[in-house]
Amino acid sequence: MPMPDHLKAFLAVAETGSVTRAAERLGLTQSGVSRKISWLEEEIGFRVFDRVRGRVALNRHGHAFAAHARKAVELLDNLPRVARSIGAGTYDRVRIVATSSIMHGLLPDVLAAYVAERPDLPPSATMRSLSEVLGLDQSDQVDVVLAPLPMRPLAFELVHEIPFDLELAVPEALLPAEVRPVAGEWPDLSRLAGLPFISLDPFASYQESVEALWSDLDRDPPYVAETTSLASAALLARAGVGCAILDPFVARALAGPQTVCARISPAITHAYGVHVPTGTPMSSEVERMLDHIKRIGAVGRPGR
Question: What are 128-139's pLDDT values in tens digits?
């Protein structure tokens, strides 16, 4: 089995492209690094570098081996933290990764409910971009991933869907006196199309549906700002800059006397996915967190 210091020397050379720079990074001599690479190649039975005129470059076998070596080193480096968390009694805490809109909308209520039940075991919640979420694997030590469907990290399986209907948030100061929601729904969206709107980035998961809605209504609302963040769109609406189409969880956090939020008709339905590591048994704490996610997520799609 390869020794950890042999793997670290291999990765240092692979990442720097130089035995000299790898030696400087590791605080070793060049000959020391070269010996570790030679020992590694002897241990695994194949060469990992091509050596041409004093330079080294990963060969085909080296490229394939590097990804696994990196994960092994990360797991070994993580062992002290794991040991500390076991000793402190926090090893079972739930680790969640979510995209921005979920982190600012759905997740705060979920975490509040969980913490009220388990104040002795604080969960960890980390926000990641969609591309970072899709790149997650089981070495990242994540228990639950929340992301817009149909996106899914490959090393995780879908265990629950949270469908929801989008809502329109209108600053009270911009809302015509004669226009008000009826039974939690805007009765005639075309009457609001002339108001200023906050646009999401053209590649945001909701924006294509929003543009299709305006096309169906034969309307072209004026956009006064564009943002890549649903949370920023909500804050701009709260500040009175313009109207924003939001998921119901962000809209609920925004609701107040200065902003009127209600469902859109015809409905625009999207969904968030809840994912867990493939093939890994769920702990009782993860199951507890999933129960809160399902319960709070259910309010996003009222009966029609």
Answer: 988 899 888 877
